[in-house]
Specification:
Length: 168
């Protein structure tokens, strides 16, 4: 791995950061710790809204939604950090593109409507981008696959997530 002088100075300014954000499916608090090089690890805790639609029975009311507390840990690799710095683009606040593998535990619903599916463990390989403005405001987008697992069943589905947040 090549080390660029700007990369080390950008990461020495950003050892860790906290953020609170509004995601497409809920609210979350996140703590991101730079690990050195282009790697970091993120811990998330929040409330997620989940909606299950049965398209065949859509108008019969067989849909369900839940509001679940969730925690996760997500190692990230910021693969274009050095290139952003070489081109003179801002990389402060870990503003770069990344690949990650999030492992999430979802607690039982605190606001259930119908039963719906309940998958307490979710593993999500994702690609994403993070941009920070004025050292405080952040936008994060990621896409990938969710692999769901409970004691009896396994499932898979798409993942799209957009987060607006405040970093401190």
């Amino acid at each position: 791995m090549l080390v660029y002088p700007g990369l080390m100075s950008a990461q020495s300014r950003i050892m860790s950061n906290h953020s609170v954000g509004l995601k497409t499916n809920g609210l979350e608090y996140a703590y991101e710790q730079a690990l050195g090089g282009d790697f970091s690890i993120v811990g998330h805790a929040g409330i997620e809204a989940n909606l299950w639609l049965d398209f065949i029975e859509m108008f019969a009311g067989d849909n369900s939604y839940n509001l679940n507390p969730a925690i996760s840990i997500e190692p990230r690799y910021y693969y274009n950090m050095a290139r952003r710095l070489r081109r003179g683009k801002d990389a402060g606040g870990l503003s770069a593109d990344f690949i990650s593998l999030e492992t999430k535990y979802i607690f039982e619903s605190i606001v259930p409507k119908n039963e719906g599916a309940y998958y307490p463990i979710v593993i999500s390989p994702t690609w994403g981008l993070r941009r920070v403005w004025r050292d405080k405001w952040l936008l994060e987008f990621n896409a990938g696959l969710n692999f769901y697992r409970d004691k009896d069943d396994t499932s898979c589905g798409p993942r799209l997530n957009l987060k607006f947040g405040f970093k401190f």
